[in-house]
Write a structure and sequence with these properties.
With 327 residues, the chain is mainly α. The protein is built from ten helices and four strands. The strands form two sheets. The protein has a two-stranded antiparallel ribbon with strand order 1-2. It has a two-stranded antiparallel ribbon with strand order 3-4. It is elongated, with a radius of gyration of 25 Å. The protein binds a DNA duplex (21 and 21 nucleotides) through helix 3 and helix 6. This is Myb proto-oncogene protein. It is found in: Nucleus.
DNA sequence: AACCGTCACAACCGCATGCGA
DNA sequence: CTCGCATGCGGTTGTGACGGT
């Protein structure tokens, strides 16, 4: 089967996102949701492929994305979960609110893996010293307990004692190298350690799934005093879109996808706005077919007789429309 | 000041997966 | 059941900042 490209290769920008592009994407997604990533850039006025837009939104622009250094607790969680789950970063990320799989992946490769490598190296020397002095097998549960691992947890590297002198930074540290027996062993070890918070966390994740449309008026608004906009603070952008867009007062209710918009409930009151210019989504790019009223189907979105009480959303059937219609 | 190496982070790429026609 | 599509995921690469020489 030949896959169609995710986007047209010609004329689409790649590389770092500009502030203007961020603004456009934030404005569009906060108002209309990401109903279709592939078509979204056309409507948002972005010369990017949908895939790029999705990545930018999920990894950087979402209001709930936590930035800054990882706390000790977060790092410990990452290490524990990686020990148990391997490189399933998206799963691990669900247990670290505000952190994306990309964040975790980057932090693992740039910091944690190396740190663990050093620790393993140190522990191996300790182990060797103990072995030399006593001649007995050292306490297995004490190995690798360096602040990251609990008693009883085992690193894959330590388990591979057959290697005479492995490089602590070698790919051996990757859990993807685990044998199935290694994985089973580690699962059992965690179970023995009472490593049961995973199930508890799943409940929280499920509770964050949106089932109803988001009512933007729940967000505290304070759009005055805007000086400088930073893409990382998309929550501020939401305020600005609402306050500055001439259409925003129409759009009291946004219908968003039933996926990962739980973050919208976590938006905090804005105390420091930094938006230089209001971005107005180019509604002329959105065909009326895509905009249907939830209450009164006889009026178009731009109707002068528009009733502010009506609810509007993007047409659920938009996926079926010919893509050429929008080109 | 210029160069170079390292690091952290952002972004891209290709494949996997789920779903509807 | 197969196909085509959209989206998700993980590996990899690109890039800018920073510090050392």
């Amino acid at each position: 089967m030949v896959r169609t490209p995710c986007c047209d290769k010609d004329g689409l920008k790649k590389g770092s996102w500009t502030q203007e592009e961020d603004n456009k994407l934030i404005a569009y997604v906060t108002r209309y949701g990401h109903w279709n990533w592939r078509l979204l850039p056309k409507f948002a006025g972005l010369a990017r492929c949908g895939k790029s837009c999705r990545l930018r939104w999920l990894n950087y622009l979402r209001p709930d994305v936590k930035r800054g250094n990882f706390s000790d607790e977060e790092e410990e969680t990452i290490v524990r979960l990686h020990e148990k789950l391997g490189n399933r970063w998206s799963v691990i990320a669900t247990h670290l609110p505000g952190r994306t799989d990309n964040d975790l992946k980057n932090h693992w490769h740039t910091t944690l893996k190396k740190r663990l490598g050093k620790n393993v190296h140190t522990e191996r020397h300790v182990k060797a010293a103990k072995s030399n002095s006593s001649g007995a097998n050292p306490d297995k549960d004490s190995i690798y307990n360096n602040g990251f691992f609990l008693e009883g947890s085992h690193s894959p590297t330590v388990s591979k004692t057959s290697d005479p002198d492995p490089d602590p930074l070698s790919p051996e540290l990757s859990s993807s190298e685990f044998s199935s027996s290694d994985y089973t062993t580690h699962q059992n070890l965690f179970a023995e350690d009472g490593f049961d918070f995973l199930d508890a966390c799943l409940e929280d994740v499920n509770q964050n799934i949106w089932t109803e449309s988001f009512h933007i008026s729940q967000v505290t608004t304070q759009a005055n005093g805007i000086d400088n906009f930073h893409g990382s603070d998309a929550a501020k952008a939401m305020e600005c879109v609402r306050a500055e867009s001439p259409l925003s007062y129409h759009n009291e209710n946004l219908v968003v996808e039933n996926d990962d918009f739980g973050f919208l409930g976590a938006i905090e009151p804005i105390t420091e706005n930094s938006w230089t210019e209001a971005f107005v989504a180019d509604m002329s790019l959105i065909p009326n077919e895509l905009l249907v009223p939830l209450v009164n189907e006889s009026e178009s979105y731009f109707s002068s007789t528009y009733d502010s009480e009506d609810l509007w959303c993007l047409n659920d059937n938009s996926h079926d429309l010919d893509v050429n219609l929008f080109q």
